[in-house]
Amino acid sequence: MMSLTELAAALRRPLVVGVTSFVLVSAFAVSELSDVDWEPSHFAAFGEEAREIRAYAEERLGSVVLRPQLGHDGRFFFVQANDPWVLEPEENALILDHPLYRTQRMFYPVVAGGLGFFGPDEIVWAMLVVNLVAMGVGAWAVARIATAMWASPWWGLAFLLNLGFISELDVGGAGIVAGAAAFGAVAMILNGRSWEGVALLTVAALTREVMLIVAVGAGFHLWRRGERREATATAVMPLAAVLSWAIYLRTRIDLEIGSAQVQGIGVPFVGLFEAFESWINDPLDLIVGLAVLLMLALFVRRAVLHDNLIGWAFLGFVPLTVVLTEEVWHSYFDITRAVAPLLTAFVLLVALGDDSPGKVSSESSLSEGA
Q1: How confident is the model at residue 355 (pLDDT cuts 50, 70, 90)?
Q2: Residue 10 has pLDDT above 60, yes or no
Q3: Rounded CA gap, 213 and 145, in Å?
């Protein structure tokens, strides 16, 4: 039988935090599924008014759970997962609203599609399972970061309790996988395993290209510390992977039909000012919007003052918010998803940012991490 000392030691392990998070988020998913007759398409977020994708899903799955209006991101990833390597774009990718933009985010649908071997029934379940596992992995990664900074691994719950990631789970988005990979990369670098960190940053960027922010930020921090080789690999390899996939996509999808415009990006500050007008009529959106703005200011201050890997890796999300459109800013649901990695990084930076071990342990080299 485990002694109290052994139990206490076990509870200080990041793996325990990750498993606990997986169990808790799985319980949430089971509760949601029980309310919709155990229909996993609930988490794919198909929309009533998205007629083409709705017909696509019903042809392959039969009856599906429908969300109001157009639905959410999960419906696009379901289409992508049915052809993750874009081998038959006319039948799959070209029904997406912006095919080149959507298919750039390839890692999540590749995994959920079983590398192209899963059928539609398996895919709709796999999309949920992948996100549940990613939630546990993300919590484990944040717990590893906390222990590298000599703090309790239970700070890993800052990933699980992140409103943005919870919303991503509900709509079948890729943000959880991207966030888990990004925090996993930071954890690897802090623990002297930089090759693994570079690999995870590549996964994060191929899941959501905005995660190149983390790669560049982490590389910049390492460069300033004089670790030029590590810094170059950290910033360049994820970017090279994203560009390589983008080139491949342009051999598979017609450029005119593909429509590669970036979504949610506009003229600096305009989206924020326009959103403020709508916040006046919704107290919750107003509170969350102002809280996010305050967090951005505090994050910049802490990142600059304490000069550690956490701050520099995620600092680039702050200027990103300046160019987000009103469509992203107007609702707490959308803005918390857009800055979800920053929310968890903010908790770590404010709670643990003064701990010098978090700075020193980032001095690992790629050779040491192999």
Answers
A1: very low
A2: no
A3: 19
Buried b (16+ CB within 10 A) or exposed e, 226-249: ebeebbebbbebbbebbeebeeeb
pLDDT band with cut points at 50, 70 and 90 for residue 257: low
Q: From CA 366, how far away is CA 231, in angstroms rounded? A: 10
Q: How far apart are the C-alpha atoms of 229 and 359, rounded to whole Å? A: 18
Domain assignment present for residue 154? The answer is yes
Q: What is the pLDDT of residue 357?
A: 42
Dist. CA 35–CA 17, nearest whole Å: 28
Q: What's the domain count of the chain? A: 1
Distance CA 160, CA 140 (A): 10
- Determine the Cα–Cα distance for residues 129 and 183; give it in Å rounded to an integer: 20
Enter the pTM of the model: 0.91
Domain that holds residue 244: 12-265
Residue 75, both tokens: 């419906």
- Cα separation values, 152 from 100, 118, 142, 288, 294, Å: 42, 40, 10, 28, 26
What are 73-76's contacts with CB under 8 Å, separation 24+? 73/45, 73/168, 73/171, 73/172, 73/173, 73/174, 74/43, 74/44, 74/45, 74/46, 74/127, 74/171, 74/172, 74/173, 75/44, 75/45, 75/46, 75/47, 75/50, 75/172, 76/102
SS3 assignment, position 89: coil
- Judge whether 79 lies within some domain: yes
Q: What is the pLDDT of residue 2?
A: 53
Taking the CB of residue 5, how many other CB atoms lie within 10 A of it? Answer: 8
For residue 133, is it within any domain? yes
**Of residues 165, 171, 146, 245, the one with CA closest to residue 205:** 245
Cβ-Cβ contacts under 8 Å for 221 (sequence gap 6 or more): 231, 308, 309, 312, 313, 362
**Bridge partners for 71 per DSSP:** 46
Q: For residue range 245-256, list pLDDT tens digits in order.
A: 999 999 998 866
- SS3 of residue 188 by DSSP: helix
Residue 139 lies in a domain: yes
